[in-house]
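Can't attach files on this board, so I'm pasting raw text. These are the components:
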Amino acid sequence: MMEALDIFTTASLWGAVLRIATPLIFGTLGALICERSGVLNLGIEGIMTLGAMVAWMTVYQGGDLWTGLAVAAFCGGMFGLLHAFLTVPLGLSQHVTGLGITLFASSLTYFVYRLSLPVSSSPPTIEPFQPLAIPGLSDIPFLGEALFSQTAPTYLAILAAAVTAWVLAKTPLGLAVRMTGENPHAVEAQGLNPIRIRIGAIVVGSALMAVGGAFLTTATFNSFFPTMVQGRGWVCIALVVFASWQPGKALLGALLFALFDAYQLRLQHVVEGGVPYQLFLMVPYVLSIVALIVMSRRARVPNALMAPYRRGER
Amino acid sequence: MRLERRTQTPLALALTAPLVAVAIALALSGVLIAIAGANPLQAYYEMLKGAFGSRLSISETLTRTTPLVLTGLAAAVAFRSRLWNIGGEGQFYVGALCAAWLGHSIAAVLPPVLAIPVMMIAGMIAGALLLLGPVILRIRFGVDEVVTTLLLNFIVLLFVSMMIEGPLKDPLAFGWPQSVAVSNDVMLPKLLSRSRLHIGLLIAIAAAIIIYVVQSRTVFGVKSRAAGLNAAAASFAGISLGSTLLVVACISGALAGLAGAIEVTGLKGYVTLDLSPGYGYSGIVVAMLAGLNPLGVVATALFVAIVFVGADSMSRAMGVPSFIADVIVSISLLTMLVCLLFTTYRVRR
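---
Top answer:
Structure tokens for the assembled complex are below.
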């Protein structure tokens, strides 16, 4: 029992929390931006898979790690544009289109991967992002190891959460995005174009999702293999609800979620015999469902979420 | 130029839509095949040959069609009432696991005539129960069932993994994670000798016909359709949305569970973690291509099966990765969505 609690006093646990949270932070922010403009983007799982592969492929072909992330963001944005084209001007069902994007993005990813590497028993690895110790802060005992010796994209994720929160809450652009998610007719009346705002939000959000996926191959696993995203995209969709569509709470939610995940990984080694490891692996998914149940009633859902906007049609 | 809602869809248009969607999808996928260094037309010819070229390949294609008809029906029934059941994959696995467990344990007690229906019904109940959870959460707490059913797929796979490495592990499988096997005398009878084709195909087609009759000829069919078309109007007309959705969920989950039970008792004989190459997810495409029509599902399930079986042999012959099958199927879903827009709307200048 004491051993189970001792895990919380190890710096490696807290270091792992930030590492595990990073793809979730990017993914949740991406999904949140889409939904604040009024469009659910279930393409997230496929876009993360795509981002993971293209970033890995770019680096494997000799590119820079940051170039890898940029290429992932670009490709994610392109698939976002496809989702946007189908759901915004055409107004197709956001649920089914999103699933279609996920199926398309992941199958295309596997196809391209298999085409470039026809036979591979063990996936080739790349040189990943190295921990970036922040001078001064990283020398603090415990905290330094836990918080200030992360890879650069992790710091970027936290920065992205802050920027998203600021843009949404304090800038005219953010106001326009939020208003499009609440009442696109009012946006039109203000002389803005809700269709363009939605398309822009989905492209930016999808680019962030792809960067989240890219983190998995450029910092966590160092290689790409099919089904590596393992439902992280769906977890992000649940986290958006848990966060009541607030970027700050999304950051907290992702960290809390990563804490449970990091803890269950370590608990597996402490708990002895009898408990199947699969029960521990179920924890993240069960927690996501619990979070949905707890928060669904309290959450302030954007009013026009999932309602397609057609000019002159109510 | 603007879109105007059609008052009714001409039958010819409804039938052309999937054909156009598939044609565009094949054209786009052809570009990928060309990039892979093969001639697209020859590749499609190889696919057709792989799916229909011999007695064996025809029976394999029909064997592959069977689970797709049932998961396709599961999605079609649910989507018609705007119940987004994306958990077909999980329901398939619980159905399969239940059937394997019963097929192993009751074969000694019950004669096959009784044991086979018992296994089928158990699989259906398991699938239905799995979907009831998310649907009750939606009705009671307003939790989006898309996310909960998706997350349940991952939980179920871990559960299956736990069972086939634990209580239901086959002790004779040399350490491979594989469930206990269905006893040979309670396996579904073969439809065609010297092939893997079993009577599951007939069960699936019968299910499609029954669903079609229920949807077009009964009061419940009207209610379930109204619940999807306009929930507010439906409840104003005295249709209880909650109880209608619950029944729809039971039917949808049961169909996906039945798919799993049939796959185990008709074909594989035991459960492994790769029992389904995504039948639950492909079922969504099957349903959408059929425009959610239960009889259409049989045809589109056959199409998806042709693509998968054909792509396997085409891949062996021409070196194009067999993932092309998933690409073709997923692009067809997206193009079909666009084509459906033109069956419900018309373009006006």
